[in-house]
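Handout, page 2. Input:
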Amino acid sequence: MTAADRTVDRGPLILACGALARELQAVIEANGLDGVDIEYIPARLHNTPDKITPEVERRLIEAGDRPVFVAYGDCGTGGHLDAMLARHGVERIPGAHCYQFFGGELFDRLQAAEPGTFYLTDYLTRHFDRLVWQGLGLDRHPKLRDLVFGNYRRLVYLAQVGDEELVRKASEAAERLGLEFEHHVVGMGGLEDAVVAATRSRA
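Output:
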């Protein structure tokens, strides 16, 4: 048996953004997707989206002929991720970003009603200080808040789980940014549907 044959014999592989770790594990366990492996790509690459496509491609090549599904939105790659995946014949979850595939039609309605909306997921709420407040330098330069968020009107928390502590943190984040607060529990949305369909078709 060749190395390629051994690769094919292995179960499906999901290449995923690290920001989806909790949610993907929950989907795998809830749907009994035994034999599915997940490789997480550091969520910090969202700060340098030009690095996402080459990193995903590197891992695709390492996977050989193993069935692969990509749990990433476009995430600011400007279509480069989709072009690369098309060359490899690999699918990804539909949507431009996690807000869209978590929120689905609700996200579309929210965005149409108020384009000046800043969104949080469970992951971003947990790590708001590190990724947003400190990541954008607001802790060091408070005046940047009006520059960065001056065109925003509200903060919408699209929650994957019903966690009152996370709701409180998201509400506090909205207050710190000077935005109106709105909260919707959307669950796993299109993430679960896409992962289940993709991994079962590749098993």
